[in-house]
Every structure is written in C-alpha cells, then in structure tokens.
Amino acid sequence: MHKRWVKIEGLGKYLPRLPVTSREMDARLGVAEGWVKKTTDVDTRYFVQGETSSFMGAEAAWEALRVAGLTFADIDCLICTSAVGEQPLPSSAVLIQKAMGQEKSGIPAYDINATCLGFMAGLDTMSYLVDAGRYRRVLLVSSEIPSAGLNWRHKESAALFGDGAAAAVISRSEDTGAPERSAILASAIRTYSEGLHYSQIRGGGTRMHPREHSAETEECFLFEMDGHGIFRMASKLLPDFVDELLRQADCSMKELKLVIPHQGSAMAMRLICKKLGISSEQLMYITPNHGNTVSASLPMGLYEAVRQGRLKRGDKFMLLGTAAGLSLGGMVLEY
What we know:
The protein is of the alpha/beta class. The chain contains nine helices and 13 strands. It folds into two domains: about 170 residues, Thiolase/Chalcone synthase (Peroxisomal Thiolase, Chain A, domain 1, 3-Layer(aba) Sandwich), CATH 3.40.47.10; about 150 residues, Thiolase/Chalcone synthase (Peroxisomal Thiolase, Chain A, domain 1). The strands form four sheets. The protein has a five-stranded mixed β-sheet, with helices on both faces.
C-alpha cells in the first residue's frame, strides 16, 4: 500500500452544555438505579441544549485551527464526516462553513458519510489528495446529535449515546529526514451488507419520505440498533481484518503505542480487545465520560490521546471501529 505523507496538524473538540449522568439516564429510562452504568459503563454523556450540529462542528473546527496556528484562509477544503446531517440538503459541510462565518470564502465544502467510520473514511480519502498536492490543508469535521433520534424504548442503545463534535486539520508532512515523519502506513474499510439491519434509520429518505410520518410509522424514523448482532458479526471478522491491516503496515500490535477504537459497547470493546491482543495500556478508552458519539467518537479519542500526552509525534497508533453497514475500518498511522 502507498504510504501517505500526511500530518494531523491540529485537533479540536466540542461537548454540549448539558451533562447527563448515568443516574439521570436511569430515571429517564425508568430502570433501576445503577442499570445504565452497569450496562454501558457511561458515567456522563452530553446532550445539546439549543446547540445545532453546525454550531458544534464550527466550535470544534475553530479549536483545531487554533491548535495548528492557522486561520480559515489556510484551509483548501472543508469535509464533514458526520453520520446524520442537520438537514438533508445542502450538505452538512456547507452549514458548518456558514456557522464559521465563512460563507463568502468559496472554499469547497462537502460530506463523506460512512456513519461511525466517517472520520476515518474522510481522513483516508482526503489523505490521497493532500499527499498528491491537490490540497495543502483539509479541515475534517464530525458533529453528531444522536440524542435527537434515540428510541427511548430501546433502553440499551438509548443509554449509550452522547452528542458532540470533533475536528482535525491535515496537511502534507514535511520530509525533514527525521524518523518520526508523520504518515498513514495502512488503511482498510470493508463492508458486509448482510449486517445492514443491525444498525439503521429506515425513515427519512426516498423509500419512506418524511411526509409519510405518522404515529404508526414513528419508530421507522428513530435509530434502531441490535448491539448483540453487531458484536457477533464483528467478533468473527475483526481478527483476520486486523491481522491483514498490521501486515500492510509492516508492524505488530505490540509496536503500537495506542489503539483508538470507536467508543461503542463497553462490554464488546473489552471482549474484542482481548481477542485482538490489545493491552489495557494501549487502549484509549473515553466511553465513561463521552458515551458513543457516532462519527465524532474516533477523533474525540484521538483528541484526548494527544491532550493527555498519551500520543506524541512519531508514535505509531491505530484507529479501529465498526459502523452501520456492517462495516469494519482500521488505519495505522505515525502521529
């Protein structure tokens, strides 16, 4: 696989104003006290309180630019990698550009959607354009409000999700001759559509248009997830998938400083980590104070890894996750 000389220059994150504790979720779901914490391992997640998806994305984007020491004028392209948009048209990236006050900039803005793997898919796709010189710098933004579409009768999934946004600025890494030059060593995404029914929102598109919304069809417009089905399928497929990814990257699991997974089910994560040989020291685990933030989950984990000093320039790490589809995704990078 072609090594791509791409650097993550800056990262940003935004969490909504309203923290929601596991005790508050117990009450909201009508379950015994302690059930949410035991089932999901989420102590606190955040729900929007008036914030829009584009507002959150803009806040995360501005932080990523500040960290990188850049202005919006330094950006050549804005990509939104969210799973669910603020509205069907135009693309969410357009709304984020406007929320940033850059509606006259002319900077191209469009979406890449791979649900929970959206950030990885966006990074993978745009890295080729950055490496080839088509763009100097690209701003990737994931902003999610899953709380808007939760089915509160599906207690296990409703208890897990949180809102929030994260962003990253990528550019071509400079060839300084140093061994820690930033790069993407390997990446892969595989989709097995036999698992598409495990995670979906059936209503809202052309097959079941919003004009057909009624009390009888309401649940079709809400999020559906079979967590056990996803885990069963993913646990069979991930070991060979990860082995092949590591072979492409020409490294072993032990050589990785960190593995940053999509923050899905806590129990599933522990079992899969054991199966894949990921040690507790390698795991970047932010589920307890974020919940599952859909496509923002991976860049939030990356943001926290850098902020906490667990990931430094030159370190090898892996992004890994599953998404609706059912899709598997992985990427090995030198930060």
